[in-house]
Specification:
It is built from ten helices and two strands, in the order αβαααααβαααα. By secondary structure, the protein is an all-alpha fold. The mean pLDDT is 87.
Length: 219
């Protein structure tokens, strides 16, 4: 299922020039991987009591599932320990776990030294057309799938807070009065919405390749 997720979110943005290697623009990877990260966090929460089945679907060997779960849990715990109190939303989490690493990788591959603040939207705009080699795209995405699913599994309550984060009403009103182009009413997706969306995401794959799990996973 790893390849299914990668293809579903990334493949349509692959660029294949006549000469040179295939790549993906940073702007496209950024947008698509952040969306996928939300689904993966939701999957971790959704199947926290059936985590072995989820890992089996992702393509892990059944004989290694116990060690896989232990390793994924340790990665999630390491991530959680490094998070600051400023992490309030899934975007914050994605930025700290994934975005910083992507930017470092882009410039390491290109042999560049570039000062880009991954928390600064203006800096991100400067590198929107940087190219990420396709091999790196696939590797990064698969790793992110495991990290985000693992975080949702290991820290379901924290993940629920991130998925349903709501900006303070006074701050939101101030942003509106300041002229920011945001909805008049703050839009917050419910946990139920996220869990149902995660089910819808994987249902086509399970129906095609593992239909015997549809009932068990309540899809």
């Amino acid at each position: 299922m790893r390849q299914y997720l990668v293809d579903l979110f990334m493949k349509q943005y692959y660029k294949k020039p006549f000469f040179g290697s295939a790549f993906m623009y940073f702007r496209d990877y950024y947008n698509q991987s952040e969306i996928l990260s939300i689904y993966c966090l939701s999957l971790g929460v959704l199947f926290k009591d059936d985590f072995e089945v989820l890992l089996d679907l992702l393509g892990n060997s059944k004989s290694d599932l116990e060690s896989n779960i232990k390793g994924i849990s340790q990665i999630a715990e390491k991530i959680e320990k490094q998070l600051s109190d400023d992490i309030k939303s899934t975007h914050d989490l994605y930025s700290e776990i994934e975005l910083k690493e992507i930017i470092e990788l882009i410039f390491n591959i290109k042999g560049k030294v570039k000062d880009v603040d991954y928390r600064n939207p203006k800096d991100l705009l400067k590198i929107k057309n940087e190219k990420i080699p396709l091999q790196a795209v696939v590797t990064l995405t698969e790793m992110m799938v495991y990290k985000m699913i693992g975080f949702g599994y290991r820290f379901p309550n924290k993940t629920k807070e991130l998925l349903t984060y709501k900006v303070d009403e006074n701050d939101y009103d101030l942003a509106l009065k300041s002229g920011l182009d945001i909805p008049q009413v703050q839009q917050v997706l419910t946990m139920e919405y996220h869990l149902n969306s995660a089910k819808d995401l994987i249902k086509p794959y399970v129906l095609k390749f593992r239909p015997e799990l549809i009932k068990r996973l309540a899809l």
